[in-house]
Amino acid sequence: MDTLRWLDGINAIEMIDQTILPNTFKYIKLKTVEQVARSIEIMQVRGAPAIGVTAAMGVALGATRFRGADRDKFFAHMDAVCARLASTRPTAVNLFWAIERQKRVMEKNRNKSVEQITRALVAEGKRMRVEDIAINKAMGAHGATLLKKNSNVMTHCNAGSLATAAYGTALGVVRAAHAQGKVARVYADETRPRLQGAMLTAFEMVHEGIPCTLNCDNTAATLMAQGKIDCCIVGADRIAANGDTANKIGTYSLAVVARYHKVPFYVAAPISTIDYSLKSGREIPIEHRGADEVRIVNGGKPICPDGVDVYNQAFDMTPARLISAIITEKGVCRAPYVKSLAAARNA
Fold first, then answer.
1. 195-249 tens-digit pLDDT
2. Choosing a second label site near 286 at 20 to 30 A (CA), which of 21, 66, 109, 179?
């Protein structure tokens, strides 16, 4: 399943609109930088790796929309493009990583023509998409070694093809392990308040023919107590140098109950999701979103009385001590993560 791609003929981005899944499967075309920025903000595209590739292509799209040959005006235009894309969501470090990578492309080609710089940015955006898919498949191969035959795997939110250019991080591990006969069933937390587990992960598993059971978030501990879960695998939006991991709200509580029940808890994420500039998760910026995401379920009727206050923190931070291993494209990292993640970066 291709989440997003570049359309050469019209210089546009085509992506799956994830806000209307699972009932409607539709590709939309983004032709302006503002459309790209809004697609990130309203979560037509989501998942750290997918956001990163989208941002990279968004920078390229901005370059194609510039008219003229004046390099100074072009670079001023591109500064505004990068600033708008960087303002969309604060937690997923892949967004900023991708923008900085495109900035380096511009700097490397600074003395070339606007047309040449634009071609370089488009090529880099397309290259990052291809790289992301290869990285996910490598991650899947490494992560599959951790699973035993006929494992029941619990996951939270969506870290599959829809969260990446294709294939997935946590669900990439599931796909690889399932191909080896190691996955009997996936248990998908519904993942309130946006229901990514119900709407996206369950959709992917049905599409792939992988047995899947949807469960309420507050059922996870009971399922573990009943011996139905062999391991948990989740994705990540940002990982600090010490292994502390920011992921969709509810990940931390899942890690806590997994530790209590002695269920291995794995994080799958590419090296680009690791923010080596941060010593611990306390430094990770955490996004808070609008109250209506909690008050109104999937565009339906309000589920609470008017006037009630709402706390809608979009991500939480899971301490490294609760994580059994971090799966990257370079291999499986274990505690102490300061050493193993640094080694993976340099591998």
1. 999 999 999 999 999 999 999 999 999 999 999 999 999 999 999 999 999 999 9
2. 21
Buried/exposed 80-104: b ≥16 CB within 10 Å, e otherwise: ebbebbbebbbbbbbbbbbbebbee
Q: Are 273 and 237 in contact (CB under 8 A)?
A: yes
In order of their start, the domains of the chain are 4-136 (1.20.120.420), 139-346 (3.40.50.10470)
Tell which residue, 280, 258, 233, has the closest CA to residue 139.
Answer: 233
Please confirm whether the linkage preceding 22 is cis (ω < 30° from 0): yes
CA distance 70 to 344: 42
pLDDT of residue 340 exceeding 90, the answer is yes
From its phi and psi, is residue 250 left (phi > 0), alpha (psi between -120 and 50) or beta?
A: left
Catalytic residue among 132, 189, 230, 237: 237
The helix/strand/coil state of 68 is coil
Query: What are phi and psi for residue 269, nearest 5 degrees?
Result: -160, 150
Helix count and strand count (H, E) for the chain? 12, 14
DSSP-based three-state secondary structure for 170? helix
**Dist CA 123 CA 100 (whole Å):** 15
What are the φ/ψ torsions at residue 11 (nearest 5 degrees)?
50, 65
| Residue 70 bears catalytic tag | no
State pLDDT tens for residues 285-303: 999 999 999 999 988 899 9
User: Three-state SS string across 213-276, please?
Assistant: EEECHHHHHHHHHCCCCCEEEECCCEEECCCCEEEECCHHHHHHHHHHCCCCEEEECCHHHEEC
Compute the distance between CA of residue 141 and CA of residue 143 in angstroms, rounded to an integer. 6
Per-residue pLDDT tens digits for 41-92? 999 999 999 999 999 999 999 999 999 999 999 999 999 999 999 999 999 9
Instruction: Please tell me the distance from the alpha carbon of residue 137 to that of residue 143, in angstroms, as a whole number.
Output: 10
